[in-house]
Design brief:
478 residues, mainly alpha
């Protein structure tokens, strides 16, 4: 089940909110949310629900033992190690074992048969949440949750368990136990959800359709796409991956606000960045924060020798690539950004500070654009085919009728999609609200306007989804 499915927006979510409002107290509300979350997650296969419950059990038990031995450093470290190794091992088996054995087989021809293990939806996200919880209990930053079902609610909450944001327990612990949703927060959550839904159903899905038509999976077909088609296809993929993932985060944050839970922001207009360092402060913020707090800083961060600092950065970006997928292109993608971040630390960052920001912005967009070529191409050979084709070196020419028709039919949509990746519409809304507050003390026109806009976005999204089976979501695979 995905947030952008008709079943979810017309049945599951309304039913969830209806019963939530009927619950008499916070405990009953939490039980109701847990039941709906377990149903939501089991939609993709009940056996994976058992896996989620088992991993929560590991985190719950090890955290309780850590807290029990808070005056015995050795015991605490043993239980921290047991909990983290147990969680990481399960993630490794399901996500990386097939990849590892395939590479071993290619080198020494054993094993004879490589098992094909299906990746449980969302395992990377909820594993990182549980790891952060166990570590935070060890650090004394949070109290261990004594109730197993409450920790299961935290890790399995359907808002964010399958595609983030990666929510740290310390940020929602109090709200899980005691919260209330006031009308402004509910209204803000509804607006955020519908904006995200429209971003996904109308914009991201359309970008995906154009990108897939211009970027076929096989190298042979790719070689026949003209240069203009490859450039436009990668631009559409660049827009798709941001609109797709940020839309999901918008919907998750919005649903949280509807019931009084406040999740961290996950995106801050990353394509407005003026450097690669700035890009990663804006892109998938909760993942970057996780690696900073639980890998980079514990390794020594920047408070060490230059050589060790390079090592720390290398480890972080190697893991960042591997986190996104068990394939060499993701590793290459992570190390690609590692190289540019090193250059910015060494000399490029100082240069970018001295020149007009527009040049830094162009530089960041170019680097990110070519990075997405690595990210998309799980078949490593496709990377070279696309790069050669962009220069017309595949004998593919610059333009053909198919590409020209796509460009003409979608030109205005492409412009709108580009603008949707900037703060333009947000700034326009804020300017309108400010203008209205100065002109009139009555808030009713603003509220009515927002309700009309939400109904319009809801209707537009439903129309986009009706009869459309093409509804991919990129980050489910991670």
């Amino acid at each position: 089940m995905v947030f952008s499915s008709l079943f979810f927006i017309l049945f599951f979510l309304p039913l969830n909110l209806f019963f939530y409002c009927l619950m008499p107290n916070i405990k009953a509300k939490n039980v109701e949310m847990l039941i709906f979350s377990l149903i939501f997650y089991s939609w993709g296969g009940p056996k994976y629900l058992l896996l989620l419950m088992g991993m929560v059990g590991i985190a719950w038990f090890s955290a309780l033992r850590i807290q029990q031995y808070k005056r015995n450093k050795k015991k605490r470290m043993q239980w921290l190690t047991a909990g983290c190794v147990g969680l990481a091992a399960i993630l490794g088996i399901f996500k990386y074992l097939t990849f590892f054995l395939s590479n071993v087989q290619a080198l020494i021809h054993v094993p004879s048969v490589v098992p094909q293990i299906v990746l449980p939806i969302g395992i990377s996200f909820y594993t990182f949440q549980l790891l952060s919880y166990v570590v935070d209990v060890y650090r004394g930053e949070v109290e261990a949750q004594k109730k197993y079902w409450m920790l299961l609610l935290y890790a399995g909450l359907f808002h964010q368990c399958i595609a983030g944001p990666i929510v740290r327990y310390e940020y929602v612990a109090k709200e899980l136990e005691n919260r209330s949703a006031r009308l402004p927060s509910i209204g803000s959550g509804i607006r955020r959800f519908f904006v995200g839904l429209a971003k996904k159903a109308v914009l991201a899905n359309s970008c995906a359709s154009i990108a897939d038509s211009l970027l076929p999976a096989s190298a042979q077909e790719l070689a026949g796409i003209p240069a203009a088609g490859l450039w436009v296809g990668m631009l559409m993929y660049m827009l798709q991956i941001y609109l797709d993932f940020s839309a999901y985060s918008d919907m998750a944050i919005g649903m949280g606000q509807m019931i009084g839970l406040h999740y961290e922001e996950n995106f801050n207009y990353p394509y407005m960045a003026v450097s690669i360092k700035d890009f990663w402060r804006r892109w998938h913020i909760t993942l970057s924060t996780f690696f900073r707090d639980y890998v980079y800083i514990p390794l020594g961060g920047s408070r060490c020798s230059k050589l060790k600092n390079v090592r720390n950065l290398f480890v972080v970006w190697l893991l960042t690539g591997f986190w996104h997928g068990a394939s060499w292109n993701y590793v290459l993608w992570g190390l690609y950004f590692f190289v540019f971040l090193l250059m910015e630390r060494a000399f490029l960052g100082k240069l970018l500070e001295k020149i007009p920001s527009i040049f830094g912005h162009i530089y960041a967009l170019i680097v990110v654009f070519f990075g997405w070529i690595l990210f998309r191409s799980e078949n490593m050979g496709n990377i070279f085919v696309i790069l050669k084709g962009m220069l017309g070196k595949n004998g593919n020419g610059f333009m053909n009728i198919h590409t020209e028709i796509i460009l003409k039919n979608n030109l205005f949509f492409m412009i709108f999609a580009v603008l949707a990746c900037t703060p333009l519409f947000k700034a326009g809304r804020e300017a309108l609200l400010l203008w209205h507050s100065r002109r009139s003390r009555l808030a009713y026109p603003v509220y009515v306007g927002q309700v009309v806009l939400m109904v319009f976005l809801w209707g537009l999204s439903v129309l986009a989804l009706v009869g459309n089976s093409y509804n991919p979501f990129l980050y489910f695979q991670f």
